[in-house]
Amino acid sequence: MEERRSAEAMEASVLESGIVSSGEGLAHVKVRRYDPTAGGQPSYDEFDGIPFADRSVLDVLHSIYQERDPSLAYRHVCTKGFCGSCMLVVNGLPVLACQYPALADMTIEPHPKFPVIRDLVVGLGLDVAEGRKDAVIVGDAAAGSSAEAVSAVGSRADIDPKACVHCQDCVAVCPVGVYSFVSKRVKVIDPDSCLGPSCNMCVDTCWKMAIKMVPRGNHDLQYPIG
Ligand code: SF4
Ligand code: SF4
Ligand code: FES
User: Fold this and answer.
1) pTM of the model
2) 153 located within any domain
3) Which of 80, 111, 122 for a ligand 3 pocket mutation test, highest count of atoms within 8 Å of Cβ?
4) 37 domain-assigned
5) What pLDDT does 143 receive?
């Protein structure tokens, strides 16, 4: 697995997964399949016997695509944790597939914030020219999203308001629109979409070191919205 993250961030990812990917085990993988253009309802395909030790979730998807089912659709670009294009959900937790460790038992779904184009590929609808500050959902998200509740475990990013100077660097770098610039202040507007330590882009970017990973459900550091 290629790594951009710090050792600490990756260790946090592994620990929050609850299952350490070591040994020679084979994984059971359940993948959500859906093609909105074909109609019908989403379904799940299951794959057994996939090697997962010391591999990323993206590595496992490559194995399924190359050896089991070439019709599986998923997205990746950099494979190094820079672009955010491999975002998806593993066992209810939003992560970057190229940075998150593969687990022995995984249910893999598209990120629920965005409408499904096919299988794990979502339409991002992010206006990069606007610094991603106006992330929007395009199309009929209710029909296409995985619509699963985001896991209550794991970590997400949050801003320490005492340290933040509202430069908007984190707004620009976040691939899922967690932050927004509202009334001359940077605020967390969508904490549940955060990809956690597997992403860490905003933490790495913030030159004021104002962003920390906090347990999901902990809103102590979060600005009031509005
Ligand atoms: S990058 Fe850091 S200082 Fe700049 S707006 Fe984000 S949290 Fe605040
Ligand atoms: S808030 Fe930070 S860690 Fe979470 S998805 Fe956005 S850039 Fe990544
Ligand atoms: S492929 Fe670019 S962040 Fe995973």
Assistant:
1) 0.82
2) no
3) 80
4) yes
5) 41
